[in-house]
Design goal:
The complex is a heterodimer. Chain A is an all-alpha fold. Chain A contains 5 helices and no strands. Chain B is built from 8 helices and no strands. In chain B, helix 2 crosses helix 4 and helix 6 crosses helix 8. The longest helix of chain B is centred in the first third of the chain and has 22 residues. Classes of the chains: A mainly alpha, B mainly alpha.
């Protein structure tokens, strides 16, 4: 089967395919089924959302304005003359004397434990005897 | 108003503005394409009319929010593909004893149309999915490369590459199967 024959047959099939038409009553069926299904108009949703957002913003703006227009509590800057007239007054509290300051008594250290003499020192006699014997040998 | 002179986008604009007659014009303009694509995509081609109806029902709701980022047919084609998938999935789960859909066409005409659609479906069935879409849109529906790319959500270069591969595969398939183009 040559390419030309194949192309012809494909073109023939295509032309017959394109002659297929939808049933005549289909448009009527579609119109009827669409009429039975009312489309919910969802266009109110973005409008309502933006209106609610605007209302919230309008409500918030005066609050922001109030907080920003509160009386400022910046410290007053004194002049040099005022600063010079100032004198530092010492507090009237009597300072403690050194003699009044006592060190707190600390608890005494525990008694130093007495070490027992090691047991090896008890056989000093025996050891001396061995050494003496060794010397005799 | 002569609806036939308006572009696809203008039709949708009138529909969005609330003109009910514009929706009828949209149906008239696109129903044949949607019906053909559905018949060539569905395993059960008798349901093509039901798919077309469902696509336009969804379009009646969805096109109100259409933002014109793509062509209206792109939106309708993607909806068609989705609805076909749903119908094919439902066909696998439903029983096979269902009555045929009432299409309102003479039985012999219906059989003829569905036979052609079935042959198109059989021809592209062995192609990978993307190549199948390209063949249906670009070759059989004669969309431009640009519109095909928009409908498929890819670049024009991708469409050209897919089309080249699909054409080679189609011809090979027709050679091996001894495909006959005449009415059988």
């Amino acid at each position: 089967m040559s390419d030309t024959t194949t192309d012809d047959k494909l073109a023939d099939l295509k032309s017959r395919y394109r002659q297929i038409e939808a049933p005549q009553q289909l448009a009527t069926r579609i119109r009827a089924s669409v009429a039975n299904r009312p489309v919910r108009n969802g266009s109110w949703l973005p409008v309502t959302a933006s209106a609610a957002l605007t209302a919230v913003l309008i409500g918030l703006v005066p609050l922001l304005w109030q907080s920003s227009s509160a009386p400022e509590t910046r410290p007053a800057t004194p002049s040099l003359a005022t600063l010079a007239a100032l004198s530092v007054e010492r507090p009237a509290v009597q300072r403690p004397r050194l003699s009044q300051i006592r060190t707190l008594p600390s608890p005494g250290m525990p008694a130093k434990p007495k070490l027992k003499p090691p047991a090896e020192q008890d056989n000093s006699t025996t050891r001396n005897f061995e050494e003496n014997n060794h010397a005799q040998i | 108003m002569n609806w036939e002179d308006l572009s696809d986008a203008d039709l949708v604009r009138h529909f969005k503005a609330g003109d009910a007659a514009a929706f009828d014009a949209i149906v008239r303009r696109f129903q044949d394409r949607i019906y053909r694509l559905a018949a060539a995509t569905l395993y059960d081609a008798e349901q093509a009319a039901d798919v077309t109806q469902e696509v336009f029902i969804r379009g009646h709701k969805g096109l109100r929010a259409f933002r014109f980022r793509a062509a209206p047919f792109t939106w309708l084609y993607r909806t068609t593909r989705l609805v076909c998938l749903e119908f094919n999935r439902r066909r696998q789960t439903d029983s096979l004893d269902e009555d045929y859909a009432d299409t309102g066409k003479p039985p012999e005409t219906l059989v003829d149309d569905l036979a052609i659609a079935a042959r198109v479906r059989a021809l592209v069935a062995k192609l990978p999915e993307r190549q199948r879409e390209v063949v249906l849109l670009r070759i059989f529906e004669e969309l431009s490369v640009r519109d095909t790319a928009r409908a498929m959500g890819c670049r024009e270069g991708t469409v050209k590459a897919l089309l080249h591969k699909a054409t080679v595969n189609l011809k090979a398939s027709m050679h091996t199967q001894g495909f006959m183009g005449r009415k059988q």
